[in-house]
Amino acid sequence: MIEVKGVSKIYTMGKEQVTALDNVNLTIKDGEFVAIVGPSGSGKSTLMHLVGGLDTPTSGSIVVNGKDISKLKDKDMSKYRNQTIGFVFQSFNLENTQTALENVMMPLIFAGTGNRERKLKANRALEIVGLQDKIKHKPNEMSGGQRQRVSIARALVNEPSIIFADEPTGNLDSKNGELIMNLLSDLNEKGYTIIMVTHNMEEAKKAKRMIKIRDGQVQEVSRDEI
């Protein structure tokens, strides 16, 4: 379970202070598929970065599985990101000089997994996303949809409990976007908690729950309000 309690995030830009999140309270249960929506600059990505351990709040606490991650030291935070969270980004964030298999193995290298086990786990993750025939291909030899599936396989390889998807279809055409959304839904049915940031309202409706952020504040919304 994820509990965001009274979280604010304030950035200092020159002489100005910008409030990205303002006293946010939010609970996400294990196994939920949540879409976070809102206009650019509303605080969507800031919230994801905080819960994902990529940033720390100015005030408040973020409790994940009973542990306040906002108080973790750097080493423990790295372990949290590596073992609890899987990240999927709009721009894929793949190494162009590495094969699909090598890209997927990267989190396992950071985790200290042995070489033989790395290959087995990476092959299994690529099989889950339907790319077992592309393991030797590099990103520039694959379509955008295939690259995003490699990114999802990389997110899965350490068997995290939470997957963050930041605009996962933003660089894809509608057909590949639908494939990625179906894949995320399938993973959610298998028990993964999915938290997706998106501008696409039609895709947001495919989540089981929607949260809207505006001016750094959150609001629970029903599908017919979007």
From TrEMBL:
The keyword Repeat does not apply. It holds the Pfam family ABC_tran. InterPro entries: AAA+_ATPase, ABC_transporter-like_ATP-bd, ABC_transporter-like_CS, ABC_transpr_LolD-like, MacB-like_ATP-bd, P-loop_NTPase. Keywords: ATP-binding, Nucleotide-binding, Transport. PROSITE patterns: ABC_TRANSPORTER_1 (PS00211), ABC_TRANSPORTER_2 (PS50893). Residues 2-226 form the ABC transporter domain. Coiled coil: none annotated. One of its GO terms (cellular component) is membrane protein complex. This is ABC-type antimicrobial peptide transport system, ATPase component. GO terms for molecular function: ATP binding; ATP hydrolysis activity; transmembrane transporter activity.
